[in-house]
Amino acid sequence: MRRALGSSVRRIGPAPVLLGLSVAGVVFVLVAVGVGASVIPVTTVGELLFYRMTGIGDPSHWSLAQDDIVWNLRLPRVVLAVMVGASLSVVGVVAQAVMRNPLADPFVLGISPGAAMGAVAWLVLGSGAFGALPVGLAAFAGAMLAMLAVGAYVRGTGSFTSSRLVLAGIVIGTGFAGVTNFLIFAARDSATTHSALFWLWGSLAGARWDQLPVPAVALVVGIAVVVFSWRPLNALLLGDATAAALGIRPHRVRIRMYVVAAVLTGLAVALAGVIAFVGLIVPHAARLLVGNDHRRLVPVSAVLGAVFLVAVDLFSRTILPPDELPIGVVTAVLGAPAFLALLARRRSGFGAS
């Protein structure tokens, strides 16, 4: 099975890749935290963060204003970028494995538009329609609804193929986006409209420390579930018949992975809105480094996705000062040509279409 998952190109081992990505991640974090309307030197940022985490250092080296900017304004945003980038990248790996299609990702399959519709519906219709349902649960419900709709359509056609699944995801996701736009149009006040548009454009600007602990735990658990499912995911790449012969139950694996994908996508959308194509771009970049084996691919994709989104967010808020581009706009611009390139160069390694 390992030979089937490999290629003629010699891959780099996961340890040096993860080490290199971690070093790059630390550099991007320090730069991202230091850059903004008020520029703070990287050395000061590093010293301040080290003091905050260990109590070791001299606080007189920075001002109270710098401490507030670094710790309360910029660092939560960077941490959120790490969480969302890792989440969407792992969901992309899962989607491409269980559907055996290199074009699958949470946006293309309609999961992200479904999650956005759930969040926007909660914002526009309010607690009168959904009770005390938090926005994160509403986003999760929308993500599950989208996945169920796509799965029901494909099953109803009586012919399951990965290409049909992707096409169904694109069409149904477009339908959910239409419902979202209708809800925004129907909103009666500008504040609600502005909040709802956040979910369509994607932004990390609203990050706060009190938002992050619960999603962080869910992210760690979700990624751990995927990491420990590397054998079934590898088997699915070889086809359901081969997986069954290896003692894997493809249907159960898919259900478990669908739930994990919906949870991670729902959390990402609830916290940062719709950020397209991260789950498409990052897993393929990770495969170029470590190959298709999910024991290596999942952790490398998670770290690479975190670094990627920190870098994209830094770009989006510094390219047009003093304004910032919505991060979802930047990833869409990057992802659209990547999607077309993958469509043109589709390989048979993910199974039949």
Describe this structure in words.
With 353 residues, the protein is mainly alpha-helical. The protein folds into two domains: 27-33 and 40-62, no CATH class; 74-347, ABC transporter involved in vitamin B12 uptake, BtuC. It is built from 16 helices and no strands. Helix 4 (64-98) crosses helix 14 (278-290), helix 5 (111-125) packs antiparallel against helix 9 (190-201) and helix 10 (213-227) runs antiparallel to helix 13. It is globular and about 70 Å long.
Number of helices: 16
What is the N-to-C succession of helices and strands? HHHHHHHHHHHHHHHH
* CATH top level label of the largest domain: Mainly Alpha
CATH architecture of the largest domain: Orthogonal Bundle
In whole angstroms, how far apart are the ends? 21 Å
Helix content: over 70%
- The low-pLDDT segments are 348-353
Q: Structural class of the helix and strand makeup?
A: mainly alpha
Task: Give the biggest beta sheet.
Answer: none
Shape: globular
The CATH homology group name of the largest domain: ABC transporter involved in vitamin B12 uptake, BtuC
Strand content range: under 5%
Find the count of extended strands (DSSP E, 2+ residues). Answer: 0
What name is given to the CATH topology of the largest domain?
A: ABC transporter involved in vitamin B12 uptake, BtuC
Mean pLDDT: 84
Number of domains: 2
Radius of gyration computed on alpha carbons: 21 Å
